[in-house]
Design a protein that fits this description.
The chain has about 210 residues and is of the alpha+beta class. It has a single domain, classed as Methylpurine-DNA glycosylase (MPG) (3-methyladenine DNA Glycosylase, Chain A, Roll), CATH 3.10.300. About 15% of the residues lie in helices and about 25% in strands. It is built from four helices and eight strands. A hairpin with a 6-residue loop joins strand 4 and strand 5. Helix 3 packs across helix 4.
Length: about 210
Amino acid sequence: MVFEINTSVYEKLPRSFYIREDVVEIAKDLLGKYLVTEIDGVLTAGKIVETEAYCGRGDKACHANEKRTPRTEVMYGEGGQAYVYLCYGIHHLFNVVTNVKDRADAVLIRALEPVIGEDTMAHRRKQTKAKLASGPGTLSQAMGITTRLTGVDLLGDQIWIAEDPNREKIEILADTRIGVEYAEEDALRLWRFVIAGNKFVSKAVKEKKSG
């Protein structure tokens, strides 16, 4: 089945969405929106149900914190680009660069609820389990995202994020980020956000916390 986005209904988020200053607010605002990829002519889409915010200044959990390297250079570009990095030499993790140039903020997309192309996702994942995109590494695999796409413009036609025209009000829960114990006091920031009650999140939040 070929799915075509009707841009009059599923509009790509504008650059102005990404270049805002508050990465935490952007991480919350991305919940409920659609992440869409068209890789090798194949379209897949999923609803964003879990995110993590990372700030390029004063956040020890952020790759760009007090250091600018060839890997993190894309994070210093204008918001609205993809930052995809390799974790443990295996997992390709997809992040959304935010803020204006040289600020180096980003939002990690941690989990999706499959919407379009579930068969393709299952084929890419080589499995048929219900949670095809529940985790940052698995969702990139399901969506066909690899490090070769780092730096791609999210207003283009390979990877983009679209508003849900039928979006209902959602409850957002906040918790600490996953796998950042090395970040000392910054590991305690409540910067992971999930849609309450969604079964596709990578790890449930046990209790409601203010975000």
